[in-house]
Specification:
Blueprint lengths: L12 H13 L13 H12 L2 H4 L8 H7 L12 H6 L2 H10 L2 E4 L4 E3 L7 E4 L7 E5 L3 E10 L2 E13 L9 E9 L5 E7 L7 H7 L4 E10 L3 E10 L6 E13 L12
Antiparallel strand pairs: 1-11, 2-5, 3-4, 4-11, 5-10, 6-9, 6-11, 7-8, 7-10
Helix pairs in contact: 1-2
């Protein structure tokens, strides 16, 4: 991790110009997947996905010891005990150790839920879930949230899901699931699962065969500078579809390598 502690800075002039130009050209309605607060993060990630490899490789993972000390944030551990005085005197190696072992998980009940009023989602008790509850999706629903003060590195976004077959419906429409992750300064992560009634993709049937909760990886991405990582999941399904989808939590996991399509050589 010592390689990221440097006084070097990434040149943000091109990305700032891109964001401002995009805001002038496009309507905010095109950012419906994300909250207004992270439109910049979305556009910056879009910038990285559109530029050529040479420009992407100019960006490095950089931060400072002071930035980490003052902004490091834990999910599983209590942050209120980390006052400014302790942040200055606790050994940096100890702060980093607890950051790396911290289970960065967020329950669906702590996320923003955008529900369908006709067929709303259901919150159900399940003692095996992160906080004892899960959400069952019935129609078009979206979940959104964010992890704060994520330091530079390679990360993987993982959802804990369960698929249960509830009928032998032959409804002609399929199920579409979009999953996103966008850091303030880093590459985007996006994956789509589609299960038509007739087609090659069998995501839902395959998930249902696992007979219980399972972890679904969305992919890996790079964070170049200390960022807020915004994530969302959107499901399109008919209320008469043969499967029910349950969601427990999302996890942000530190990984050694980035195997995404972006900056695959920058580890």
């Amino acid at each position: 991790m010592e390689e990221i502690f440097t006084n070097d800075k990434n040149d943000k002039s091109q990305i700032s110009a891109y964001v401002q130009k995009a805001k002038q050209k496009e309507s905010y309605s095109c950012f419906s997947e994300l909250t207004l607060a992270n439109v910049d993060a979305y556009l910056q990630s879009k910038y990285f996905s559109g530029v050529d490899e040479e420009i992407r490789l100019r960006w490095k993972m950089v931060t400072t010891i002071t930035d980490v000390r003052m902004n490091i944030h834990y999910v599983s551990f209590k942050n209120e005990y980390l006052n400014n005085d302790l942040r200055q005197h606790i050994p940096l190696a100890k702060l980093m150790y607890f950051y790396l072992i911290d289970r960065k998980r967020m329950s669906v009940t702590d996320m923003f839920l955008f529900d369908d009023l006709t067929h709303p989602s259901q919150i159900e008790q399940d003692p095996t879930c992160l906080n004892g509850y899960c959400i069952r999706f019935n129609d078009h629903q979206r979940l959104r949230g964010a992890f704060y003060s994520i330091i530079p590195g390679n990360y993987e976004i993982i959802w804990r899901l369960k698929v249960v077959k509830i009928s032998d419906s032959t409804e002609k429409w399929g199920t579409l699931s979009h999953c996103f992750a966008n850091p303030d300064f880093g590459t985007p992560c996006c994956k789509t699962f589609y299960s038509p009634r007739r087609g090659k993709s069998k995501w839902l049937p395959e998930m249902e065969k696992k007979n219980g909760w399972c972890l679904q990886s969305i992919g890996t991405f790079v964070v170049f500078e200390t960022s807020t990582v915004y994530f969302s999941i959107r499901l399109h399904m008919t209320p008469y579809w043969a499967y029910a989808i349950y969601c427990d939590y999302v996890e942000l996991k530190v990984v050694e390598y980035n195997n995404s399509n972006y900056l695959s050589n920058n580890t």
